[in-house]
Q: What sequence folds into this?
């Protein structure tokens, strides 16, 4: 049964929802421990685990045992994963700055949809900056490509419009 339909039926008190195995307290605590391990990959969770968990915790909180603990553990998992993402960005920046390594790609295996949405703007600008530093470094530490992009983003001055006279109608 689709999730949206189950949530709709639950709101009308026409069914009970069984939480998926990954949303149970014991499983989430195991995921949290795995995420806290240094140098570990992201734990296996559904691609939309944040959205699914939020929907189920809101709509079917009476059906999920130990719901408060599940909710707080799910938030802890999200926070630990975001901290791991930030640490990964810091490692990438260190590799570029200190080791002069060229970064051509970043592995995001196991990252969730909402996590990608949260980091996407920063990730795009970071990779663009890495690319520009790797292709045309200058003495100032900023590439020409980055300077050109910065100029393109600068607000443009308003140009005076050329007002045309309305077409005349002759009878």
A:
């Amino acid at each position: 049964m689709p999730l949206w339909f189950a949530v709709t039926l639950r709101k009308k008190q026409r069914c009970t929802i069984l939480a998926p195995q990954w949303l149970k307290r014991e499983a989430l605590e195991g995921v949290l421990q795995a995420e806290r391990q240094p140098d570990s990959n992201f734990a296996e969770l559904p691609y939309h685990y944040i959205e699914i968990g939020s929907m189920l915790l809101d709509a079917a909180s009476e059906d999920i045992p130990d719901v408060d603990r599940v909710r707080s553990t799910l938030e802890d998992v999200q926070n630990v994963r975001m901290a791991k993402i930030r640490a990964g960005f810091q490692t990438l920046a260190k590799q570029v700055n200190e080791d002069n390594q060229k970064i051509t790609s970043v592995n995001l295996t196991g990252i969730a949809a909402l996590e990608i949405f949260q980091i996407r703007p920063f990730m795009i600008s970071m990779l663009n900056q890495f690319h520009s530093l790797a292709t045309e470094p200058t003495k100032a530490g900023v590439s020409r490509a980055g300077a050109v992009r910065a100029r393109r983003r600068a607000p443009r001055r308003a140009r005076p419009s050329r007002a045309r006279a309305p077409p005349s109608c002759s009878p």
In short: The first helix runs from residue 3 to 11. Helices lie at 3-11, 25-36, 49-59, 67-99, 113-135, 144-153. Residues 163-171 have pLDDT under 50 and may be disordered.
